[in-house]
Amino acid sequence: MLSISRKIFWVFVPLFLASPVRAGDWEDYRAAHPKESPCDAHVRTALLSTDKGENEKALKSFAGAEKGGCLAEDGLALAKAAFLNRLEGDSARAKELYEKALPLLEKDYPTHSVRVGALYNLAYLIESEGRYDEAASRYEEALKIDPAFQNARTSLKSLHVKLCRSKLKEKKGKDALSHAEQALLLQEELDKGLTEKNEDARREVLLLLVRAYDMSGAPEKAKNITKEIIPLADARTAEEVGAFWADPSREGFDLAEEALKKAASLDTKRTAPLTQLAGLYESKEKWLEAAKAYEDASKRKPKDPDLVYAMGYALFQGGDKKKAKEAFGKVLSLDPSHSDARDALSQF
User: pLDDT-based confidence at 257, cuts 50/70/90?
Assistant: First the structure.
């Protein structure tokens, strides 16, 4: 067989400051602390001002309550003060107040919406510090109190996604799998009852699950999840799935072929899915199928001489010398300086 040189070319959830506005916060405080205190007026003004959005006035009143010694005695007031400090951008102070508030909230306001908000906001703050396990436990605690609090569920799912990606980078397949499975469960809970489910979010989790199963030594499970993904995939997802299974070590030729074909059909402008498909065929020495994929890619980018050269090379390897010669000639018409095409033609 003639030898022809070949170029290688291939080709967080936004912060939700959870502090529900309730006109009865002062009444709740009064019920929890029926004995009058000299600084009750400060607490009352602070709580009512917070509910009205008068943040500066509320902060001054909370400062007066703290000076009088009664702020530290009540979790609701502490949580409201923490909320305001978070709004003012003082995360360290907010975290300090939330941590002081939670034991008191558990004692005096166990099912109060302010406790749920405090758990959520503290979780967000400690997650931003990289204390992921502690953040997850806080999100979970908020959900136990209020199972309908979707912001906590969304944040917890995003945290598991983040941890899964981290474990995959560390090559810790079993840990990654655990986080992926929890993320999928949370995504399914988020989708319940929705008229239009968040398919993008679900696909993201399923892709992580595929990688985690593969890394954990469960390729058949990874393939089964992939079969679920492909029919729902958008172009980007299909291309990513195709590239993943195109790796010869994974023995996923059929899945890679199906995914890359779908990617190419969904995105009719890009050539990358087609060149990846061609490379997949070449790995199995399916030369004429590779040539067809390169031809389709060339139709999308007709002035690219390298795509035509790749088609010619595949045709030559597949035994169609006549069409290969025509392809190499076309390369030179596009790029007279294309040395590989000239060398190829010189051998006919």
Answer: very high
Residues written for the chain: 348
For residue 7, the surrounding DSSP H or E stretch is: none
Q: How far apart are CA 224 and CA 56, in angstroms?
A: 56
Q: Residue 217 class from Cβ within 10 Å (0-12 exposed, 13-18 middle, 19+ buried)?
A: exposed
pLDDT above 80: residue 335: yes
Torsion over CA: 39, 78, 146, 149 (sign): positive
Does 347 have pLDDT greater than 90? no
* Dist CA 246 CA 290 (whole Å): 14
| 8 Å CB contact between 81 and 71 | yes
The single residue listed with the structure tokens 């239009």 is 196
- How many CA atoms lie within 13 Å of 276's alpha carbon, on the beta-carbon side? 24
CA-based R_g, the chain, Å: 30
Q: Which residue has the tokens 């995003």?
A: 158
CB-facing half-sphere around the CA of 231: CA atoms within 13 A: 4
pTM of the model: 0.81
What is the crossing angle of helices 25-32 and 40-52, to 10°? 150
Rounded CA-CA distance 247/250 in Å is: 6
Q: What distance in Å separates the CA atoms of residue 89 and residue 143, rounded to the nearest whole number?
A: 26
Q: Which two tokens stand for residue 286?
A: 């399916």
| Residue 335, C-beta contacts closer than 8 angstroms, at least 6 positions apart | 305, 341
Could you write out the DSSP letters of every residue in 244-275?
HHTSGGG--HHHHHHHHHHHHHH-SS-SHHHH
Alpha-carbon dihedral sign for residues 122, 126, 131, 132: positive
Give the HSE-up count for residue 88: Cα atoms under 13 Å, Cβ half-sphere: 17
CA–CA dist 276, 281 (Å, integer): 9
Residue partners of 57: CB distance under 8 A and separation at least 6 = 45, 49
Q: Whole-angstrom Cα distance, residue 252 to residue 100?
A: 54
**33 contacts 69 by C-beta, under 8 angstroms:** no
Which phi and psi (to 5°) does residue 147 adopt?
A: -60, -20
As a whole number of angstroms, the distance between CA 48 and CA 134 comes to 32
The CB density around residue 237, as the number of other CB atoms within 10 Å, is 22
